[in-house]
Amino acid sequence: MKIVYLSLDNGVPLNGPKGSSVHVRELVNALAACGNQVTIFAANVGEALAPLRAKVIEVDGSGSPDERLPGVEGAGASPWELKVGSLHAAVLDRLRRLQAQEGFDLVYERYSLWSAAGVRAAKLLNVPCLVEVNAPLVEERRRYGNLVRVSEAKAIEADVLSRADAILAVSEGVKAYVLANGADPLRTVVIPNGVDVSRFHPAVESDAGQRLDGRFVMGFVGSLQRWHGIEILVQVIRALLRRSDDYHLLVVGDGVLRSWVESQVQALGLEKAVTLTGPVPHDRVPGLIRRMDVALAPYPLLENFYFSPLKLFEYMAVGRPVVASRIGQIQEVVRDGETALLVPPGDPQALVDQIERLRRDQNLREGLGRAAALQARNYTWERNARQVAAIGERLLRTRGE
């Protein structure tokens, strides 16, 4: 199939290090590896950090005719509305030209706040549109940001969810959200995040700094955000150091809480016991995970845990013993005591106890790691791509009947 992939969120640079960017690249490459031809329309290409098996077209709406956003009422549009509308117009214009010159079979859009470009273009060009939803974006932005014009945002979201030919939710939590906001249950499926087991595997070479030699390393990979539980790790490393000087905390990633973590580490005198790498290219992540003796996913107790943690699949694929919060998709993917150890969300003492247990029991560490690596093979990007392609082919057959 010829697939057009729309990634129109400026906060998701196509060539960025964070999980959302990794998701885009990995799925696109997996779709290409399965024999599909992919063209990416991206609002933010970013720096060239990783190879992509796709043609990339950057769109920003500059110079495009202004177009009103669906669901926006009133006599005049603000500059912000015109900017988003212009992006829609630019995407539609480029898609029309692409369809006339080369043709394509379907549109796949990673849903972003305010974007109805995919479903609108697909209806006009008479091709199927698949929409991937990774979070309840309106509610997330209301909770953690300062979303304005909420009613307009919800109207656009409802329009997208009701008009898409298929909705691909990343978790059961996201599925429940989209169903409550206009999606058809018969056209909605759950496809979790995945991992490339050709790059993330137990035999990968460890990326270890001299500073970590001889230490028992507990590690975290991900964006340093409030909902990832990074704050609790400062408490955990302090408690563990009271039991043994051998402990070290390795934090891989960047985010809004990085400066807070750095200030806490300095204030508590933990500089020799904590390493923060900052942002790293994704191709370094397997080796950094391999250096971890225990990999952590310490999520706090959240009312609606809708995440599909990329870190979990990558930890498991590398064969690291995992200690994670018993919440949401995590407890659906792993078996407590067999492929990971689960703890109550937001409980630092439970984390401490399980990490200490793993430090003392090498056989348990090795057994959990082996079982996790085997389980990770059920959650690959290739498998996701084949599922996406099957949905697309079924939609094309239905239209041809």
3D structure, described in words:
The protein is an alpha/beta fold and 401 residues long. It folds into 2 domains: 2-194 and 380-400, Glycogen Phosphorylase B (Rossmann fold, 3-Layer(aba) Sandwich); 210-376, Rossmann fold (3-Layer(aba) Sandwich), CATH 3.40.50. The chain has helices at residues 19-33, 79-101, 117-125, 137-144, 150-163, 172-180, 230-243, 258-267, 285-291, 310-318, 330-333, 348-360, 362-376, 381-400; strands at 2-7, 37-42, 55-58, 106-110, 129-133, 166-169, 188-190, 216-221, 247-252, 274-276, 294-297, 322-325, 341-343. The chain has a 7-stranded parallel β-sheet, with helices on both faces. Strands 10-9-8-11-12-13 form a 6-stranded parallel β-sheet, with helices on both faces. The protein is elongated. The model is unreliable at 63-82 (pLDDT under 50).
Write the element-wise H/E pattern from the N-terminal end onward. EHEEHEHEHHEHEEHEHEHEHEHEHHH
Number of beta-strand segments: 13
Tell me the major beta sheet. Answer: 7 strands, parallel
Structural Rg:
22 Å
What is the CATH topology descriptor of the largest domain? Rossmann fold
What is the CATH C level class of the largest domain, in words? Alpha Beta
Beta percentage is 5-15%
- The first-to-last residue Cα distance is 18 Å
| Average predicted confidence as pLDDT | 90
Output the number of helix runs: 14
Apparent shape? elongated
In total, the number of domains comes to: 2
Provide the CATH architecture of the largest domain.
3-Layer(aba) Sandwich
Question: What class do helices, strands and sheet pairing give?
Answer: alpha/beta
Low-confidence stretches: 63-82
Q: So, the CATH homologous superfamily of the largest domain?
A: Glycogen Phosphorylase B
Q: Strands across the major sheet, in which order?
A: 3-2-1-4-5-6-7
Helix content: 40-55%
